[in-house]
Amino acid sequence: MTKIAIVTGASRGLGRNTALSLARRGSDVIITYQSRRAQALAAVAEIESLGRKAVAIELDAGNIAGFAPFAERLRDTLRETWLRDTFDHLVNNAGHGDYALIEQTTEAQFDGLVNVHFKGVFFLTQALLPLIAHGGRIVNLSSGLTRVSYPGYGAYAAVKAAVEVLSVYMAKELGSRGITVNTVAPGAIETDFGGGAVRDNPEINQMFAAMTALGRAGLPDDIGPMIASLLSEDNRWVNAQRIEVSGGQGI
């Protein structure tokens, strides 16, 4: 049976690359987007050009009150498009960058990071548990910044570290259903994340390149295919792990 994967925040960046990588491996994909509808539909069209089915559904990953309605819409979509009541893989990728020194971080910035990157991951997964097939997989996105510190990333890194701990507990509690849960922690990647700083600012790009054993910043194609591989049957025994994909950043 064809696998069905959900990738949150997949209208751009790592989420889009992951969705396309999964499609290239034969998976159908449901992507979510917050505001970039046109980009999401373009991603759907590209997935369909690979011969896979795809649907885009709007979701604000920081609005917990919207998760129950999203789950209902997802249930209807699964029945209408796939004649199924469950999906197989969940990639909690949606996120944003908001960086400031600890002494300058506002409560609004802090709450926004917690709501999207931690509270959102917790309660979205909770809302979707009845729809995840037994033997399914969950991948939560973290960051290399939970291991290598850099000024200005304190709040962001802290919520990502919380996700890493949460993933271990998810793996423990969902193991009876055969569901594996892992964390993927990318290093610095050239995307539009955080205003595109790593991609568009040569000074920042070179700074991270100098910190990395392979001598460059990462690319989306370094991450999406790895996540798709992790979700394959080849990695069915990998569980409760933090897997850093950073080219050897900060070693």
* CATH-defined architecture: 3-Layer(aba) Sandwich
What form results from the Cα inertia axes? Answer: globular
**Separation, N- and C-terminal Cα atoms:** 42 Å
Biggest sheet strand order reads: 3-2-1-4-5-6-7
The helix-strand sequence is EHEHEHEHEHEHHHE
Number of strands: 7
What Rg do the Cα atoms give? 17 Å
Could you tell me the strand content as a percent range? 15-25%
What's the number of helices? 8
Count of domains: 1
Secondary structure class reads alpha/beta
**Main sheet overview:** 7 strands, parallel
The residue ranges in which pLDDT falls below 50 over 5 or more consecutive positions are none
Helix proportion of residues, in percent?
40-55%
Q: What is the H level of CATH, i.e. the homologous superfamily?
A: NAD(P)-binding Rossmann-like Domain
CATH topology name: Rossmann fold
CATH class equals Alpha Beta
What brief labels describe this structure?
251 residues; alpha/beta; Rossmann fold; seven-stranded parallel beta sheet; globular
Would you summarize the structure shown here?
This protein has eight helices and seven strands; from the N terminus they run βαβαβαβαβαβαααβ.
Could you outline the blueprint of secondary structure elements for this entry?
Elements lengths: L3 E4 L5 H12 L3 E6 L3 H13 L4 E5 L8 H16 L4 E6 L14 H22 L3 E10 L12 H21 L5 E7 L10 H4 L1 H9 L9 H11 L11 E4 L6
Parallel strand pairs: 1-2, 1-4, 2-3, 4-5, 5-6, 6-7
Helix pairs in contact: 1-2, 1-8, 4-5
